[in-house]
Write a structure and sequence with these properties.
Number of helices: 6
CATH architecture of the largest domain: Up-down Bundle
Structural class: alpha+beta
Distance between the termini: 79 Å
Strand content: 5-15%
Order of helices and strands: HHHEHEHEEH
Helix content: 55-70%
Strand order of the largest sheet: 2-1-3-4
Number of strands: 4
């Protein structure tokens, strides 16, 4: 009789344990699927942004161009931020498989591309915004990076419509990211490009000066 009780308890425990594993797997797959869907949306927005660059070259003197271009970029920035938060949640849950890194690489490339669009918008339309490109390591120690991220979050909170921050990992083997760091002579992490200024290392909120 005792053996029967133990067997039933074992089977019940096994069922609960298996259900927990299955639920965890399903949640992980759901998070990845949502991130992939958001990535597909960003791909469409990136295509639209590329078309906007051609539009910029052709109709940059049109009265309505800057307002339309700015509205589009603001929407894209929101989508990029949502995907970034999704990837951060996956990373916090330690779900770092090949799917995660493929999405992360594409996210980094989009961040660079939209930073370029924002820079063009600020220059061509005299927009009162400061594009900020933030370089950090994805898979290496960086004692000052958390402090730098806190400063950037404070800047964004102080003037969200003016400070547009694009965070880009340096260690995903992306040629575009490597070329930009070389362009600005950046060798340290963290490092920043704030408008026309480059900071090779940690920069304080006062140095960033994006809300003035």
């Amino acid at each position: 009789m005792n053996n029967g009780v133990y067997l039933k308890a074992f089977l019940a425990t096994l069922i609960v344990f298996s259900a927990g594993i299955a639920t965890g797997w399903w949640l992980d797959q759901t998070r990845i699927a949502v991130a992939q869907a958001e990535l597909e949306d960003l791909k469409i927005q990136a295509d639209e942004a590329r078309l906007s660059l051609l539009y910029l070259e052709t109709f940059k003197d049109s009265p309505g161009f800057c307002a339309n271009y700015g509205s589009q970029l603001t929407s894209q920035l929101e989508g990029l931020g949502a995907l970034g938060e999704r990837l951060t949640a996956l990373q916090a849950a330690n779900k770092l498989d090949s799917s995660f890194y493929r999405i992360k690489k594409q996210y980094a490339l989009f961040s660079v591309e939209f930073w370029m669009h924002a820079s063009n918008y600020a220059r061509e339309c005299n927009a009162s915004l400061v594009p900020i490109l933030y370089f950090y390591p994805e898979n290496a120690a960086c004692p000052d990076c958390s402090r730098q991220a806190s400063e950037l979050n404070a800047v964004k909170k102080e003037c969200p419509e003016r400070a547009w921050v694009f965070a880009v990992p340096i260690d995903l083997d992306l040629n575009a990211v490597n070329a930009l760091r070389m362009q600005y002579g950046l060798t340290s992490v963290p490092s920043l490009v704030v408008g026309e200024k480059a900071f090779d290392g940690y920069a304080s909120r006062e140095q960033i000066d994006a809300c003035a």
